[in-house]
Write a structure and sequence with these properties.
By secondary structure, the protein is α+β, with helices and mostly antiparallel strands. The chain has helices at about 15-25, 55-65, 85-110, and strands at about 5-10, 30-35, 45-50, 75-80. The longest helix is centred in the last third of the chain and has 26 residues, at about 85-110.
Length: about 110
């Protein structure tokens, strides 16, 4: 599995296709997505690119410089999986189960 990169400070005109082309010369791009506002559909000025390997990701980070697609210095960082996300999901599932049990007990005890 490749390395996912955060790409920030993008021009609002950059599309996911543009982002993919920007990184393609540095290796195989598995996915490229510019994040858009749900309400307006306008770019939020950042996105994510997943490169084919860690070496390709490092090459892209080292080689990509500011271009016409960025209003200033392009911010590129490696992403890391959130350690809290699975714990939060488990906590919510546990709370839901507990609430269901409380309501079920209450329904059985009602006349």
């Amino acid at each position: 599995m490749g390395k996912k990169l955060y790409v920030g400070n993008l021009s609002y005109d950059v599309t996911s296709s543009d982002l993919e082309q920007m990184f393609a010369s540095h290796g195989s791009v598995q996915s490229a997505e510019v994040i858009q506002d749900r309400m307006t559909g306008r770019s939020k000025g950042f996105g994510f690119v997943e490169m084919g390997s860690d070496d390709e990701a490092q090459a892209a980070i080292s080689a990509i410089r500011p271009s016409s697609m960025t209003p200033g210095p392009l911010g590129i960082d490696e992403t890391s999986p959130s350690a809290e996300a699975p714990a939060e999901t488990a906590r919510r599932a546990s709370a839901r189960l507990e609430m269901q049990q409380i309501f079920t007990r209450g329904a059985r005890n009602s006349p």
